[in-house]
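Kindly review this record before class:
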Amino acid sequence: MTTGKTQRAVVGSTAGHVSRNFVADVHGHAYVPRVSVRSDGKVIAELIQFDTHLKEIAATPLAHYLGTEPPGASHGIASLT
């Protein structure tokens, strides 16, 4: 059913990282990368899962997402399989 309503969720990011792409599944869940800095200064990347109400329900570590470049050099999600 199409309602015409829109919703918004702030995922958060750091150090100039921007992902212009996100993924949605057949259940209406959205997946968006989040890059953050831990209290020890380490930069981490996670894939955040939102339900149909845009409630954050999971965070999966992305061990190789950033590579060796600074977060601002990442192109975000470029493809999926």
About this structure: The chain has a mean pLDDT of 82.
